[in-house]
Amino acid sequence: MEISGGEEGAEFGGPRGERMLVPSLKVQDLIEEIRGAKTQAQEREVIQKECAHIRASFRDGDPLHRHRQLAKLLYVHMLGYPAHFGQMECLKLIASPRFTDKRVGYLGAMLLLDERQDAHLLITNSIKNDLSQGTQAVQGLALCTLSTMGSAEMCRDLATEVEKLLLQPSPYVRKKAVLTAVHMIRKVPELSTIFLPPCAQLLHERHHGILLGTITLIMELCERSPAALKHFRKVVPQLVQILRTLLTTGYSTEHSISGVSDPFLQVQILRLLRILGRNHEESSETMNDLLAQVATNTDTSRNAGNAVLFETVLTILDIRSAAGLRVLAVNILGRFLLNSDKNIRYVALTSLLRLVQSDHSAVQRHRPTVVECLQEPDTSLSRRALELSLALVNSSNVRAMTQELQGFLQSCPTDLRADCASGILLAAERYAPTKRWHIDTILRVLTTAGAHVRDDAVANLTQLIGGAQELHAYSVRRLYCALAEDISQQPLVQVAAWCIGEYGDLLLEGSCEEIEPLQVEEEEVLALLERVLQSHMSLPATRGYALTALMKLSTRLRGDNNRIRQVVSIYGSCLDVELQQRAVEYDTLFRKYDHMRAAILEKMPLVERGGPQVDEEAKESKEEARLLEAAPVPTEPQASKLLDLLDLLDGPSEDAQHPRPLDPSPGGALVHLLDLPCAPPPAAPIPNLKVFEREGLQLSLSFVRPPETPALLLITVTATNTSGGDVTHFICQAAVPKSFQLQLQAPSGDTVPAQGGLPMTQLLRILNPNKAPLRLKLRLTYTHFGQSVQEIFEVNNLPVETWQ
């Protein structure tokens, strides 16, 4: 009994010999019923019922209606419901001689199979047969399936069949064969030698789809094979002629968009020319005239023309083009900045940011336009404009650019304040014309956006003020006035408290000629610092600065110190442990060591930039290790070594009886004193290793093996950035072989500041109990000049000392 207009049924229940068929829906009826479900539960009920019919039909093995059941299952799969039980039915339909079966079978294979499942390999033979013996329609289905889900194994097995189809007389088949070849090259790059010969012939095609696919195939070949790149540089004149024909006579009116002749083909040819002309003088020279023609004759009133023009600019900038052509490209990007379309302005800003290092003077001409883009209401545009503006700052325009950026800082969105403030501070640090201007600039940034500056801003400013002795009086007065107006900006309060504590005597003298006379009383200074201590906005670190400033003022003020002593004693019972400890120590200094207070609280000595004390200690320790390694190590009994240790504590008279070993550094005595009596000489330091460098971003590794744990290796990953733009969202991941144990510590941050700012560090702990040769695989993910970058590379040249 047939039900629902010949549509098959499913068998359910019933005693033996009785077959009851339950009606199964047609594809159209199933779609209507699912769409008509008012709740998700009703939809699930309809789908579950129909899936039961489909399973029963598959079990019965009905060959006539199998493709209809699979079509319904594919619709269910598109809705997100499981349909894996139809995979084998796809294979049966593909093997069927009927076109209606093959059509649904290949569609099911593309949707239900992928290279992660072994079942996909079972259709390799069917695809091979269809490619060699099938009709054009069947060959097209097989090629589409292969280009969608073909694995590396399938690509290797079927590459020769696809190569034969590249020269078929049918344009329909050739176009699909070219696209399948592109997929094969991406999956198996070593197949490039098979597809090199047909590509040269396909470039003579007049069919739009075939030519477009051929250009894409050549691009894939050149990017993955140096031999292919060298081979196709010979066809640069032919590509130039094709593009010139597109510009002058057009290719086909049906492929023109807004008056631009076939922009998609133009863009692909320009991308291929960019690959072929990169780092090749002869090819670049061949395409220079054509690029100038495209850049000057392309209509920019429509978006299609802008797309072609932008690809032309990228090609000019990436090849070895003439200097005048590069200036023309930068000027085109400058015109893009005046476009009303936000997307075009964004693309222009991003491209100029990439160019600012190589063509700085050409980009500088468009500085006023870039600065105007800072006021864009679109945050993404203003962020790109900010990055480009910071990259354009140099010694000749630092005053004007800093003024513009400070104006932007006052009104910019909150999420941009940190980047803007950090950029201004870095620019001022690098290009400051005078120390006073530098100090004023930092103070204005701290006053405007103190809560958004980097952590090292306080240390940098205190260091700068400390090193400018002639500006001590000026700085302390400026900071006192700023603190009296606002105590909410914590970095500003910390710097002001430090400066008042160090140079409070200059504040009271009132002898600064740089600014207007200011009469300040001792009580006013103390009251201001007490207000900072009592403010609910003050952080614990800020209170520590204020308490230390009060303590230092006890030696710089001429009045009675009872008020300071009282404040210090109050904070001796503070809940904050750090502040309490500091207050207790200061109170003890008042009570027990008052005669030493003036000497202890003297002005801080000037500390050199960049942590040189640490660098000097490291340099001395390395020099000591080198000398100890070069000198012969005498073998002495343990008693002799104990006597040597005692000699360090004796007077000069004992030195004659027991000569002291050579101390290569002033800290050598301390080093020997802390050494164990039987400790071996320190091992030679492991040399550092630079493992990565791209567009100013450098990654280096330094190594330490603790003597007490020889199997443990500590690797410090240090990222530095000498480019003009910050590297943001920086993530470093590492992997080692299974015989090692790896532990990644948290990095010091996720931003590597531009222009040689504070480096970012991360510690790797690797346990190597078997002392096997170490191999390290690193993956870097970051954003630089507005582009997301991911780099994966292996480090195989680690020093032998890291594992032996």
Automatic annotation (TrEMBL):
InterPro entries xref list: Adaptor_Complx_Large_Subunit, AP1_complex_gsu, ARM-like, ARM-type_fold, Clathrin/coatomer_adapt-like_N, Clathrin_a/b/g-adaptin_app_Ig, Clathrin_app_Ig-like_sf, GAE_dom
Subcellular location: Cytoplasmic vesicle membrane; Endomembrane system; Golgi apparatus
Molecular functions (GO terms): clathrin adaptor activity
Location of the GAE domain: 684-799
Annotated GO CC locations: AP-1 adaptor complex; synapse
Mode of membrane association: Peripheral membrane protein
A family per Pfam: Alpha_adaptinC2
This protein's record includes keyword Transmembrane: no
Keywords from the named record: Cytoplasmic vesicle, Golgi apparatus, Membrane, Protein transport, Transport
Gene3D superfamilies on file: 2.60.40.1230, Leucine-rich Repeat Variant
Main location: membrane
Region ranges (Disordered): 611-633
A biological process term (GO) from this entry: Golgi to vacuole transport
Family: Belongs to the adaptor complexes large subunit family.
UniProt name for this protein: AP-1 complex subunit gamma
Species of the source: Equus caballus
